[in-house]
Design goal:
22% strand, single chain, 4-stranded mixed β-sheet, rod-shaped, 5-stranded mixed β-sheet, alpha+beta
Amino acid sequence: MGANRYIKLMPDMAVFVRVVETGSFSTAALELGMTPSAVSRQVSRLEQALSVRLLERTTRKLRLSESGSEAYQRCLEMVNAAKAAMEVADKFVALPQGLLRVGMPKAFGKSVVTPLIPGFLAKYPQVDVQLILTDRHVDLINDDADLVIRITSQPADGLVARPLMSIDQVLCATPSYLAQHGTPRQPQDLCGHSCLYLGENAGDSDWHFMRQGETTIIKVRGRYVVNHSEARLEGVLQNLGIGCLPYFIVRNALEQGLVKAVLTDWEFVAAYQGTAFIQYLPTRYLAPKMRVFIDYLAAHMEADLKPLDRRRLAADK
């Protein structure tokens, strides 16, 4: 008997079990919301498929045949297995648990997300978290990830996206560096400064600025180029020049007065800015482990969802 025929017989097997348990076609039909004749037809179809008589029918009661007794035990195992599967599903729907794999950019993951993980694990003891920190594009399917965080001004089509945090770039330097070399007032002034930039592509030394519809591009140079945000911050703190950094990287240093923001009346335009979106494949049944992680991150980043107030940065100068 082919696999498809087994599958087609499963409803008949379930009906057969209910008939045996109730001892009546009519009672089983009432419980199943069927007519007695429909129940009888399904049992007959099962008997025909198995080429055995399962039930001995009398006017007063039903009795299992010898072959029917053994068939009933096998069919009951199937029904119980189905019940167990439903219990597993109910457990996972009701309770966040299991391994959660989340891909995200390195700097954002290390500086913003990883400090939140201990609190999340404590709150949800049955959820394990694996962070995939990489600046390459993490694919939900090919990389077997449940969620991805991407920094962009436009989330990808075909995925559900929830905004988490505004990502802004800030130019900054130490007070000591600015005292020695001067504070730039216009983007063009950067030509006389040592600048720390990404250096992954040829165009990374072209710094783009925008203000009230006006745009300008300045070719900068410097003696220290590094493709890691925290390393650039360390270079800035060592008075090596003016660095371009995501606000979430330099925030603490700004608040402590270790560095000062410059050219705050201009917007520094870079690929690594916009909004951090957490994204996942569309589904009607979002796994609890995914739902609580998304809500947890969103709650902790809510205050940073609005774009950076550059007037406040200017006031802190």
